[in-house]
Design brief:
Blueprint: E1 20-21, E2 24-25, H1 30-34, H2 40-108, H3 115-168, H4 171-177, H5 185-199, H6 202-250
Antiparallel strand pairs: 1-2
The structure holds 2-acetamido-2-deoxy-beta-D-glucopyranose (2 copies).
């Protein structure tokens, strides 16, 4: 769009005068037109407030997006913990049930101290410890994947938009610092108008950019969730299967 020559008018205190900037003719934003014709200083102030309003809108959007991202991570953590909680409860109940049955059998054979029973009890503890370690590992993988996904997909994009949005707050001052405001006021105003036009759709760009990153993040999340669910299920299933075998062996102790 900037490649095309845009033919519009800048009116300043230079009413009806077109401002040509590197062969482009740029338009004064509506908000600035409202204060025309005015003192030049007022125009600079109006540009400053325009850029600041833009910064505010971008900043607000970024905050909402960050809040949504935090909420999504919070919900995801709750889902993971609830899933692990179900498996942990299942493992504990099964462990208690098997321990009781082994004890009952030990009492029946009057063999609570028998090496066979003691070994079975030790093995039950070992299996429960192993299941707990497996759950820790699954939690660690889930945490690492999610943290990486946030770091890679979401935050750099947000940070980049935040940085460039922050620059808007000083746009006018920055322009003044690099121009001769006395001789080049019309050029400065035109450049500011040009710059503002280039940034005007920033909120849409931020939304599109960050939403894309959120989609990428969501895809990672879905994969992690599938993996962690499968891991949790298999930890529970393996424990139940192994401790059942153990119980059958323990019931053979005599
Ligand atoms: C933030 O989340 C809310 C509630 O889920 C949603 O309605 C809103 O569109 C989201 N906003 C953005 C900018 O993603
Ligand atoms: C944003 O600015 C901060 C602080 O100046 C800097 O550390 C960071 O690298 C910048 N990030 C991006 C993506 O530009």
């Amino acid at each position: 769009m900037w490649q095309k020559l845009v033919l519009v008018t800048v009116l300043a205190s230079f009413a009806c005068q077109q401002i040509v900037l590197s062969k482009k003719i740029v338009e004064v934003p509506e908000a600035v037109k409202k204060v025309l014709p005015h003192a030049d200083g007022a125009l600079l102030a109006e540009f400053d407030s325009l850029f600041n309003r833009l910064h505010y809108n971008v900043d607000y959007k970024l905050r909402v997006l960050r809040m949504n991202q935090s909420l999504a991570i919070k919900n995801l953590n709750a889902q993971f913990i609830s899933r692990f909680g179900i498996v942990i409860t299942e493992i504990q109940q099964e462990k208690l049930r098997v321990k009781d049955l082994i004890l009952q059998h030990a009492l029946e054979i009057d063999g609570t101290q028998s090496p066979c029973i003691v070994a079975a009890n030790d093995e039950a503890i070992r299996q429960a410890t192993q299941a707990a370690a497996d759950i820790s590992l699954a939690a660690e993988l889930a945490y690492a994947d999610m943290a990486t996904a946030s770091r890679v997909f979401f935050y750099p994009q947000v940070q980049a938009f935040q940085n460039s949005s922050t620059d808007l707050q000083s746009a006018v001052l920055e322009k003044l610092s690099r121009s001769n405001i006395v001789t080049d006021l019309d050029i400065v105003l035109a450049e500011l108008a040009y710059q503002y036009e280039g940034e005007e759709d920033k909120v849409e760009r931020v939304l599109a950019g960050v939403e894309q990153e959120l989609e990428n993040f969501q895809e990672v999340v879905n994969n992690v969730r599938r993996e962690v669910w499968a891991m949790a299920d298999s930890i529970g299933r393996n424990f139940v299967f192994n401790i059942q075998m153990l119980l059958e062996e323990a019931l053979q102790c005599s």
